[in-house]
C-alpha cells in the first residue's frame, strides 16, 4: 500500500483512487482507455500478488474498447482476460474476443424457489444430498439427464429453453424468468463444429467439475422486503442454486475459434500484449461466425441448467412425497457469467452498439430497462451471486448506477484467493467435508475428495465484502442472503 491514501500499489502498477471503491490505472503507452478496479483496500490486497491488474491493463489494447476496462470486486487472474472483467467494445469498429468470453461459454447460475422452510428439511439433509447426487450427473466424464442425439443437440443450440419446453422439460414460466427468455435469437448451430457437438451428446443435463455445483440453501436474511417479495423470497425459505455452463461444447467452441483467429487474423493478434486475448475484427466473417456459435453455446448452457432443474424438481418430489408444483418450485432467474452480447449503451461517444464482454461478471440491469423480464421490470433484474460452500450467497437487484458505471454489470461470485493446486496442498477434502457438516450443518458430496479440497471455503474471498462494494456503488443492490444446507459437486 502506498503512503499516499489516494494511490495503491498492486502487481507493480499504481492505481489512483477516483472515489470510494473506484480505482483507476490511467491510460498510458499503448493503452486505448484507462482501466478501473472496483474494490476495497482489503480486496485490492488480495489481487496484488497475481496478474489481475496486468491482465486488465492488457484488455485496454483491444481494438474498439470503449471508455474503460473494468475489474469487479471478485476479480482475479484468469486466462488472458481477468475473471471478473468487463470490456465494452464497439460492435462496428472493434472486435469480439473468445479469450475475453472464456472457455465455459454461459457458465451461469439459476435459483429455484420453493414453499418449503428449513424446518421441512432439517434432519433429512443427508437423504436429500444423496438423492440429488445420485440423480444429477457430475464430474469430468460423460452422462447427462438425457441422452442427446444430433437432432436434439442442434435444436437445443438453436432454440434454447424453447426446445426444452417443447420436449416437456420446462414450463412456460421457466422461459419468462430467464435472461433473454432462455433463447439467443442470433444463435447459429452451423457455426459450431461437429467435434463440439459430439462432446455435447452425452452431457445434456450435467454439472461437470471444478467450481460447478447444485446447492440447497435457506434464506437467512432479507435486506429489501418489497423486492424480496417480488422475487418470491422470505426468511427460512428453502431455495436451490444451480451453477454450471456449456460443458465440453463451449470449451471446444472457444478452442476452435482461438485456433482460427491465429490462422486468419494473426495480424491483429500480433498487436496485442497477450495472445490469449485473441480477437476477430468486427465485421469480419470470423467475428460473425464466432458470435453465432457463442450464442448457440449460450442456448445449450441454458438447456443444460434447465434439465438439471427438471431433475431437481423430480428428486424433491420423490424425497418429500408431493409434486413439485405443490412445493411451488419456480425459477426465480437465470443469469449468464461468461458471455459477450450486443447491447446499446450510452458512452463518451454517445449511444453506441457494443459487444459487452463479461467474463466472470453478470449483467445487472436496473428497474425499467426494456431487457429486464416483465415480471421484474419494476424491481430490476435479479442478480445471483454465489459464495463458497461455507459462506452465504446473495440475491441482488440490478442497481441504478450499473449502466453508467459498469455497462450494466456486477460481480459473479466470491472470487478465488488461491489456485486449485494451492488448495489441494492446503486442504484435505475429507476434513473439509467433516468440518462443514459438524460445525455448520452443511452436507457436501462430490465425486472425489480433491474436488472438495479445491473448493474449500478458505479458497475464496469474503463474499460479504464483494457484495458490500457492489451495493455501495449502486451497481447491484442487496435483496437477500442465503446459506448452504446441501451441496453436490463434480
UniProtKB/TrEMBL annotation:
It comes from Halosegnis longus. Monomer. Mn(2+) 1 binds at residues 104, 212. It is an enzyme of class 6 (ligase). The active site is at 412 (gmp-histidine intermediate). The gene is rtcB. GMP binds at residues 211-215, 337-338, 386-389, 393, 412-415, 489. This is tRNA-splicing ligase RtcB. It catalyses: a 3'-end 3'-phospho-ribonucleotide-RNA + a 5'-end dephospho-ribonucleoside-RNA + GTP = a ribonucleotidyl-ribonucleotide-RNA + GMP + diphosphate; a 3'-end 2',3'-cyclophospho-ribonucleotide-RNA + a 5'-end dephospho-ribonucleoside-RNA + GTP + H2O = a ribonucleotidyl-ribonucleotide-RNA + GMP + diphosphate + H(+).
Amino acid at each position: 500500500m502506498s503512503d499516499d491514501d489516494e494511490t495503491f500499489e498492486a502487481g507493480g502498477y499504481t492505481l489512483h483512487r477516483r472515489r470510494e471503491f473506484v480505482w483507476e490505472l490511467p491510460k498510458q503507452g499503448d493503452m486505448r482507455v484507462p482501466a478501473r478496479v472496483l474494490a476495497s483496500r482489503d480486496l485490492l490486497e488480495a489481487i496484488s500478488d497475481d496478474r489481475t491488474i496486468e491482465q486488465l491493463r492488457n484488455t485496454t489494447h483491444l481494438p474498439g474498447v470503449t471508455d474503460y476496462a473494468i475489474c469487479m470486486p471478485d476479480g482475479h487472474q484468469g486466462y488472458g482476460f481477468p475473471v471478473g472483467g468487463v470490456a465494452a467494445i464497439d460492435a462496428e469498429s472493434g472486435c469480439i474476443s473468445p479469450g475475453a468470453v472464456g472457455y465455459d461459454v454461459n457458465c451461469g447460475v439459476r435459483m429455484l424457489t420453493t414453499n418449503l422452510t428449513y424446518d421441512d428439511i432439517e434432519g433429512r439433509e443427508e437423504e436429500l444430498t444423496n438423492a440429488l447426487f445420485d440423480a444429477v450427473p457430475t464430474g469430468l466424464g460423460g452422462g447427462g439427464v438425457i441422452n442427446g442425439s444430433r437432432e436434439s443437440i442442434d435444436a437445443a443450440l438453436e432454440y434454447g429453453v424453447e426446445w426444452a419446453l417443447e420436449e416437456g422439460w420446462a414450463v412456460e414460466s421457466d422461459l419468462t424468468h430467464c435472461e433473454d427468455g432462455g433463447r439467443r435469437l442470433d444463435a447459429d448451430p452451423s457455426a459450431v463444429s461437429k467435434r463440439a457437438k459430439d462432446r455435447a451428446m452425452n452431457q445434456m443435463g450435467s454439472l461437470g467439475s471444478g467450481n460447478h455445483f447444485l446447492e440447497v440453501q435457506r434464506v437467512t436474511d432479507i435486506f429489501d422486503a418489497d423486492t424480496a417479495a417480488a422475487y418470491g423470497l422470505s426468511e427460512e425459505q428453502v431455495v436451490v442454486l444451480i451453477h454450471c455452463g456449456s460443458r465440453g461444447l463451449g470449451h471446444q467452441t472457444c478452442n476452435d475459434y482461438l485456433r482460427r483467429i491465429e490462422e486468419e487474423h494473426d495480424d491483429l493478434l500480433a498487436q496485442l500484449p497477450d495472445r490469449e486475448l485473441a480477437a476477430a475484427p468486427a465485421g469480419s466473417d470470423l467475428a460473425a461466425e464466432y458470435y453465432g456459435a457463442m450464442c448457440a453455446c449460450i442456448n445449450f448452457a441454458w438447456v443444460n441448467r434447465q434439465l438439471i432443474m427438471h431433475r431437481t424438481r423430480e428428486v424433491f418430489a420423490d424425497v418429500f412425497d408431493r409434486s413439485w408444483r405443490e412445493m411451488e418450485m419456480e425459477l426465480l432467474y437465470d443469469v449468464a457469467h461468461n458471455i459477450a452480447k450486443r447491447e446499446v449503451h450510452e458512452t463518451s461517444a454517445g449511444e453506441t452498439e457494443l459487444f459487452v464482454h463479461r467474463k466472470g461478471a453478470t449483467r445487472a440491469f436496473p428497474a425499467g430497462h426494456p431487457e429486464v423480464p416483465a415480471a421484474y421490470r419494476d424491481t430490476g433484474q435479479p442478480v445471483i451471486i454465489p459464495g463458497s460452500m461455507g459462506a452465504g450467497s446473495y440475491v441482488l437487484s440490478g442497481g441504478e448506477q450499473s449502466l453508467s458505471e459498469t455497462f450494466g454489470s456486477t460481480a459473479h461470485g466470491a472470487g478465488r484467493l488461491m489456485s486449485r493446486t494451492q488448495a489441494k496442498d492446503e486442504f484435505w477434502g475429507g476434513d473439509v467435508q467433516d468440518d462443514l457438516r459438524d460445525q455448520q450443518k452443511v452436507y457436501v458430496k462430490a465425486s472425489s475428495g480433491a474436488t472438495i479440497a479445491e473448493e474449500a471455503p478458505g479458497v475464496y474471498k469474503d463474499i460479504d465484502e464483494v457484495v458490500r462494494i457492489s451495493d455501495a456503488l449502486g451497481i447491484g443492490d442487496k435483496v437477500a442472503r442465503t446459506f448452504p444446507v446441501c451441496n453436490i459437486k463434480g
